[in-house]
Structure formats: C-alpha cells, structure tokens
Amino acid sequence: MMGNVVSLDSIFGLGELPPPGAAMATPVAASGCSSSSCGSSDGPADMDPAVWEKVKNHPCYSEEAHHYFARMHVAVAPACNIQCNYCNRKYDCSNESRPGVVSEKLTPDQAIRKILAVAQEIPQLSVIGIAGPGDSLAAAGRNTFATFEMLQRKAPDLKLCLSTNGLALPEHVDTIAQYNIDHVTITINMVDPEVGAGIYPWIFHKHKRWTGLDAAKILHEQQMLGLEMLTSRGILVKVNSVMIPGINDEHLLEVNKAVKSRGAFLHNIMPLISDPAHGTWFGLNGQRGPTAQELKVVQDACEGGAKLMRHCRQCRADAVGLLGEDRGEEFTADKIAAMEIADYDDEARRSYREHVEAERAGRHASKAAAQADVQDAVGAAVDPILIAVATKGGERINEHFGHAKEFQIYEVGLNGAKFVGHRRVDQYCEGGSGDADTLDGVLSAINDCTAVFVAKIGGCPSKSLADAGIEPVDRFAFDYIEESALAYFKDYAERLGQGAVCSRAGQDAVIRTGALTARRA
C-alpha cells in the first residue's frame, strides 16, 4: 500500500515520501492564510478550527487540499427532476468530461465495491461524492442514501459529499444530517425566476411537470429554503453557478449576494460548456461560453461577497483521482471484478495525511514570508500579473511543458499569489516530438499570462512563447509554486521599472471546458 505513496514524486518533488516519524524539511507553525482572500485558498488562521477540520482535506472545498487529495464520484443516481438547457446526459465520450456524464451506472453495492477498490490503490483518496449522473436527491435519494449508509460502516474515514440542483433538497435535509454528510453542493444559476426561465425548460415537482416562469419560481424557492436549512445545521454548502453570457452573467453578482446572506461557504462560478456535439439545447442553438477574461471579470466582481472557489474542473459524475486528472479508466467494472479487494485498512491514508499535514505547516509560513518580501521590495504602481504553471500536484512546478494537459493560472501581485483558474490544453509533445497546431492551441489558452513556469521546456516552444510575449521560465523547476511566483514577480517589477519588459494587460485567452480524463504519466 505505501508503495502508492512513495511513487508520488509529482507531489513531493524529486524525493520520496519520508518514512513515518522522519522529519520534514523545516516545518514550523502555520501563521496566516495562503496569501489570498479567495475563499477556497483560506488556511487554518482564517476560519473556525472545526470548519478547518472539515475542509482541510477536501479537494473541492480547499484550493490547497486539491494539490494533495483525491475525490471519487460514484454514479448511483441516474434520475433527474429538472431539465437544464446546458445538459444532455445521454452523451458520453472517454476523451471528454463534464457534469452529468458517466460511462457506467452503478448500484449501491457496486459503488461500495468500487470505492473499496479505489481506496486500497489511491491513498490520497479523502472524499466520496455523489453527483448524478442525474440528481442525487431525485427518486427520493434512495440509491444515494443507501450508498452512504453502507459506506459509513465500511470506510468511516472517508468524507461524504453530495451535489444537487436543490429542487428536492428541503425534504431530505434531516436525512443528510443523519448520515453526517458535511458537504453539500447546490447548483444555483439564478435568484430571479425571469432569468431562470431562460435556463430551465421544465421541472418535475410534487408529481407534476412545471414549465416556464412557474418552474423557475418553484426551483428558486426550494433552493433558497434548502440552503438555509443546511447552513442552520452547520453543514457546509458550496454553490455552483454556470456562467452563461447574455443570460445570467451580469445576474451572478446578485446570486453571490443571495447565497452569502444565507450562509453558503463557497461560490463556484463555472464557464458554460457549450459544444454542439454534446446535443444540449444551448449547444445546438449557438449559445457560447465565456472567454477567460469574461469569466475572471465576473469572479473578481464577486470578491467581497460569498467566498469564491476557482479550482473547479467541472468533473464527470464518475471521476476518480486528483482534480485535474481522472483515473476512472483504471477502475471499470470488468477491472474491479478481476481485482482482489482486501479488508478495508486506512493505515496508508492516515500515514499520507500525517505527512501532508507536516508539509503544509511549513508551507503556510514560507508563503507568508515570500509575500512580505515582495511587499517590502515592490512599489504599489506595479499591477498584478497572471502566470501559467505546469504541475502534476503537490503545489510544485513539476511538469514538462510538452507533457502538460492543463496549466494552473495564478494571479501574482503585492497581495500575494493566488490560484485563479486552470486552462485545459492538448498535450504538445507526443512520441518525442511537438506539434505546431497543438502549440498554437496552448498559446491561445495562456495568452493572458506574462510567464509560464515549467520543469523543462524545449527550444522550439520556448521561442514560440517568447515571440508571443510569454516568458518561459524553468529556473524554478520542482520548487513550490507560490514562493516561486512571488520571487518572479519581484524580479519582473524591477525589470518593468527598467523598461526591460512590457505589461501584457488587456490580453484574453480561450477557455477549453471540462476536466481531464487521462491519467497523468
């Protein structure tokens, strides 16, 4: 089991995970947050200790945790009680990813066997979620709660999490609390039924089909009531909102205010996935998704309201692994049937969590020190910049440019370095050589960035990046992202003052939506 941990050089840089009891590199007590007011990047100094215990190892509720911990979605809830104009659950492609999509639907018994199989292979696993492929609470939530009831007995160390559209939520809040489900995600795209009527063609509520404004009004009332009931019981709620240009983009600020006033812990504003090939109403009727800059403008406008999550990957309903990867193909029904599943043992996960805890303690202090250094050295006239980072995880710059299938985007300035999003790309280097068309796609995805941090990069892509005004940087290879970004910003500010570099303000980039499905090498 521990062999699975030791192999994670992507998380702990070049070295192996030290044996239990060994000292980590100069760990010190945590002081301060992770240099950002962005909610999901808050640290233990920013919230009640009981809340921190709930979120610190949850990759969706903590941006820091998503570098270290894995989630697993089990597809036991196929029924849905609403229709969204951005959803078509019949589509499935092994190379694509979006909510509502699965390759295999499971019974609760099948789900438990799959969870136990994954748990013995992936010690980073910390959360089991049910997110469809329909709604987790449709059909009275029977499969959802049957799965969680068995899971509580068989794997009590794993956190339980569910996602819902909120229509049936109020009638199930007591059951959610009974099963100690600490985390619930509600998709709330509007608080004005006039806006909602353009998103939801129909709902099915109290044995009746509702359409138009009536449907949106009922859905809104149920969502707000369910949110209030959950937060009054101390259950953490993340609100997902799909940004749909021309329909609810300007309205999302009101959504943010409304969910904050009702106690939501996080607000996740996601770009619309709108590909005609998916067969959705929006996709077939030309409704576009937002650009990177449009999405960031709306997210930035919501800062100061409900705290924001910006590291969402819009995962499949059967996703497995770290955010930014999906190892589901390793755990298909036929492969699990052939596996020998041992008695449940959480020793490997406990050991892994202890090492991560020690690692984080030193991280919080080093981030704060790097930020203080920048504030002392850089004048207030220097605007923040965006940096793209090739990483496999562990908060380190540890991926080759040519092997990257996504870049994590950090905004760096006087207030620190904070994660603000990610950009999917096609892998530039396949079979030892690069592809020019793929490189153009990478450039368009990170066109708003001043620099790209990589563990290694070849001469050809390095020149193309430089010609596009994006500086390739490999001098921080295998170092921590935020400290490296702050050191770069300090140097950038000095060069900017000397006229050696120019600002890239005003650039925009292309968002390719969905989460990765291929396992990282």
Overview of the molecule:
By secondary structure, this protein is of the alpha/beta class. The chain contains 15 helices and 18 strands. Helix 12 packs parallel to helix 15. The longest helix has 31 residues. The protein is globular. The two termini are 19 Å apart. The N terminus and C terminus are likely disordered.
List keywords for this structure.
8-stranded mixed β-sheet, alpha/beta, nitrogen fixation, metal-binding, 5-stranded mixed β-sheet, disordered N terminus, MoaA_NifB_PqqE_Fe-S-bd_CS, 32% helix, 521 residues
Strand order of the largest sheet: 10-9-8-5-4-3-1-11
E-strand count: 18
Portion in strands:
15-25%
Which stretches of 5+ consecutive residues score pLDDT under 50? 1-39, 91-97, 515-521
The averaged pLDDT comes out at: 84
Structural class: alpha/beta
Protein name: FeMo cofactor biosynthesis protein NifB
Domain Radical SAM core: 66-318
Family: Belongs to the radical SAM superfamily. NifB family.
Cofactor: [4Fe-4S] cluster
Short description:
Helices cover 32% and strands 16% of the residues. The protein is of the alpha/beta class and 521 residues long.
List the helices and strands and how they pair.
Layout: H1 2-6, H2 49-55, E1 70-73, E2 82-83, H3 108-121, E3 125-130, H4 142-154, E4 159-164, H5 173-178, E5 183-187, H6 193-196, E6 202-205, E7 208-211, H7 212-232, E8 236-243, H8 252-261, E9 266-271, H9 281-284, H10 292-302, E10 308-309, E11 320-322, H11 333-337, H12 347-377, E12 385-389, E13 406-413, E14 416-424, E15 429-430, E16 433-434, H13 436-445, E17 451-453, H14 459-467, E18 471-473, H15 481-498
Parallel strand pairs: 1-3, 3-4, 4-5, 5-8, 8-9, 9-10, 12-17, 17-18
Antiparallel strand pairs: 1-11, 2-6, 6-7, 12-13, 13-14, 15-16
Helix pairs in contact: 3-4, 12-15
